[in-house]
Structure formats: structure tokens, C-alpha cells
Amino acid sequence: MSSTARHILELHRRGALRGALGLAALAALQPAMAPRALGQVAFRAYPFTLGVASGDPAPDGVVLWTRLAPEPLAPMGGLPHVAIEVRWEVAEDDRFTRIVAQGRQLARPELGFSVHAEVSGLQPAHGYFYRFMVGREVSRVGRTRTAPAAGATPERLRFVSAGCQHLEHGFFTAWRHVAAEELDFVYHSGDYLYEYRGVQPGEPSWGPTLRSHVGDEIHTIDNYRQRYAQYKTDPDLAAAHAAHPFIMAFDDHEVDNDWAGAISEEDGGRRFPIAVPPEVFALRKQAAFQAWWENMPLRRAQLPRGPEIIAYRELRFGQLARLHVLDTRSWRDDQPCGGSPAVQRACDELQRPDQQMLGQAQESWLMGNIAEGGATWQVLAQQVLMMPRDLGNSQINVDKWDGAPAARTRLLRGLAERGAANAVVLTGDSHNAWVADLRLENGPVVATEFGATSISSGGDGNEMAPAAEAVLRRNPHIHFFNNRRGYSLHEATARRMEVTQRVVPFVTRPDAPREDRGVFVVEAGRAGVQRG
User: Fold this and answer.
1) Residue 352 sits in the same domain as residue 417
2) In the prediction, which pLDDT does 36 show?
3) For 174-320, where are the E strands, in sequence order?
4) Among 350, 356, 458, 469, which is most exposed with the fewest C-beta within 10 angstroms?
């Protein structure tokens, strides 16, 4: 076992204690209002510029989020370095005449003036309205929804899978359409922001440049906070957050392109011969994870401890679905065969039986959940394409699960051995829409994977990328591909899951209409996907 793998296992062995310490530490950050908190704050500008959000719904509650930033791109959002009292309310109506929960929290400078209110005592499967107040200022009103009760079998569960929103590449019109959907939640697969330096219009880049990132490539906590603020001021993204609870994951760009475990993209390989040492990269991860937590509607359990974070977790939606949110970055091995996303030939590393994509602790946790059963649908919400792909010309994309085939086989065999009927995999990252059946070593179908395309990354795209038709011919288990931008809409019942691949025909100008490019159905108890 490598030293990196041993280190990761040791981190997991300490995970329970670290989590307990994290909860205690964050609880200590929220005492009764301290005298040093500002009482009546007179802001020079509106403090809720970054909007509101809710997330991780439970049957009795939800996380409510906001972050104070009257000057969103200024250091510390333009605020003095002192804790500020924020009030929140939850009501059954948008006029707040029937308030059912309320409270106060401190927005602390150490946490970027973010607020994470873990509300409890609510009714299951129920819609609510919420808002924040500080001084005389009032936030916009958000809507949220709790999960069904543990023993309930809801008539349906409706959710969106989406991710990959590169601000420079286009407008976030797809999020406006998501805001208008009737949903129980949104799963965000990651790449919420991109860490690259700002590109000016006309400058060479891998995509179009309609609006530029502020600053250089981001490395410090202040850099990451500013970049999140730039993204969160997008009105379409803000509208989607205010409309639905979000279940958040991260992929690579929340930290560094193609990072893997303790290894930076700058790993000393062909593309980056001067390596960033793991102990230096850990400092960047620490800044990135703290900023991610500060800017997302996450619970205290996800608060990072330095460069370590336990982001994988499970959410239950009665007896209809169990959603297993996975982390395919933190515990994986470095990409094999030279480490670039697509390598031209296989190497011995691809044959290792102990390859890791989830890490041993997360893999064991997932298999334990699957063995429990308890729901019609087992949904694996993860980041990179799990489906095997023969790309031709001996190419292998080693940043996906194709770079860890033994880990994929273990996972699929684990699903099959534990009788995980009706397993569905949600995926982002690739900037294309995909639908494929996942088979265990050319045997029966074990799960069906739905890859959501990007919100904007890659620009307008097209209906069929140049090499995609050949890929579909070589891979009969892959049933659909589309290269437009958009999201996947899922509707699950006790009998079937119907998935619609929704797109926008352009992102390089505003106000694109919503269009559908394919409807697919997985029937409960019948493996494999069918056209709807």
C-alpha cells in the first residue's frame, strides 16, 4: 500500500472523532449572542447580494443559508472584522403571517460572514418560505421543501441533476428554467465555479469568453471567496437557489483541475514537470474546502477540518429513494498512465486490483447503505462518468472511472451481490448528456447511468460532437449522447423513473428557450433503460 493510501485510511479512522470535534467546534461558534456582535448595523449597501439558499432536506427540517456581502467582490465582502447578528424566519406563506420557526445566528468573519441555520421541527414533505434579516435589511424570500417521513411512500419524487457552470463560457439561462420547475430538490454534481484566471474576450481559451473571471487563478481563501461571490451574483443561479433546496457535491474545479486525493494537477508529469508538493497542495485544499462550505447550504457535519472534508453522505426520501452523495476526488488514486485526462495507451497501473476511486472507507460505507435496502430506488449521486467508453485510437480517459476499472468492478459487483435493484447513477463533469446501462463484466445490467450536460461550460455546443457517433457505434451499452447545455430532470415513482434530458440551444446570448432532447425510462424491477 502506498504512503498516500495509508494516510487516507488513517484520516478515515480518525473521521468519527474529527466529525465529533467539528460539530463541537462549530457549536462553540454559535453561542447566545455575544456582546461584541453588532446590534443595529448600518450598511453602506444591501448586505444580501449573494442571495439565499436551502439544502440537504430532512423529514423535519432543512439547512438555510446566506452570506453577508454588501460589496461582494471586495475583501471580506466589504464588512468589518466583527460578528454580525442575523435573524431568520420560516413560514407557511410568503407574507410570513404564519411563522413556524425562527432564530438568530452570528455571521462570523472567520467563516466569511456565512450563516448555516439547521432548522428542525418542521413537517415532512411540506413546502415552506424563509428569509433572513439583519438590522433593517431583509433578504429575498426563498422557498424550500422537507423530505418525506421515513416510513412514507410518496407518490413521486421530482429532482434535477446539474452542474459545470463556467461563468466565462455563457449565460446561466438553464438555471432560470430549473427555477421554474416543480421539484423536491436539485442535485449539483460539482464544478460550481472554475478556478482559472480571468480570460479577456478575444484571448485564446478552451471556450468562448462572454464575461471574465475577476483576478488570476485562485489559491487563497480570499481568492476563492471572491470567485464564489462573482458566481453567486448571477441572477439565474440565484433564482434557482431561492426556488429549491440543493444537495451539493464538489468535483475538481472547486479546488484545482483534475486534482486527485493529495495530488495537485501540477503533479510532476508530462504537462506539469514542476510538481506542487502534497503538503503545499493541502494548503490550497484547506482554503478551497472552507470557501465551498461557507458558500453552500451544508450542515455542520461537512465543515472541513483543515484540508480534510467528509462530503459523502446519505439523504432519504421515505421508502421511495435513498440518495448516496459520493466524493470521487478526495480519496481516489492519482490518475494513472501519465495523468493527463486522455492517454493514448494503457499501462500497468490500469491493471492494479486495489485501485481506488472512492477510497476504502467511503466504499465500505456505501456498500453498508446498499445492503440495508429500504427504498425502491438506490441513487448514487457522483461526479465523473462511470460507464466504460471505447474512445477509439487507443485513447483512455483516466480522469473518469475508466482510469480505475477495478474500482468500478468492485462497486458494480457490490451492488449486484447486495441485491440493489433499481440502482441509478447520476453524473456530471463531461459537459455532455449521456445515458448508458452499466453491466458487470459483460453480464447483466446492474445500474443505469444518467450523465447531465453542463449548465454553460464549453459554450453553445451542438447536437452531436464530431467523434460522438463513432463512440456510440463502438459502445452499444451507451444509448444517448447530446452536446448542448442544460440539465437532467428525473421523476421517480414506485413503478418507474422517467428522465428527460433538457437543453438550451445556446448560452452565448441570453434568454434561450428550454427544449427536450430525449426521454428515458427505467422500470422498477426491470434492469436497463428504455426510450420513453
Assistant:
1) yes
2) 52
3) 185-188, 245-248, 313-317
4) 469
Q: Please, are residues 481 and 432 in contact by the beta-carbon 8 Å criterion?
A: yes
Q: Are 314 and 452 within one domain? A: yes
Task: Print the domain residue range for 271.
Answer: 159-531
pLDDT of residue 271: 82
Dihedral sign, Cα of residue 297, residue 488, residue 191, residue 197: negative
Supply 158's cell numbers: 421530482
Query: In terms of pTM, does the model score above 0.90?
Result: yes
Q: Which of 60, 247, 65 is nearest to 146 (CA)?
A: 60
Q: Mean pLDDT for each 10-residue chunk of the chain (532 residues)?
A: 40 41 44 48 92 98 98 97 97 98 98 98 98 97 98 97 98 98 98 97 90 97 98 98 99 98 90 93 98 98 97 98 98 92 87 97 98 97 98 92 97 96 96 97 94 98 92 97 98 98 98 97 97 92
CATH number of the domain that residue 129 is part of: 2.60.40.380
> Vertex 91, ends 85 and 95: CA angle to 5°?
95
Residue with cell 416510513: 151
CB 21 within 8 A of CB 300: no
- What confidence score (pLDDT) does residue 270 get? 76
CATH of the domain at 404: 3.60.21.70
Among 98, 123, 145, which residue terminates a domain? Answer: 145
Pair (183, 58) in one structural domain: no
Question: DSSP of 356-370, one letter per residue?
Answer: -SS-HHHHHHHHHHH
Exposed/middle/buried for 39, CB within 10 Å: 0-12, 13-18, 19+? Answer: exposed
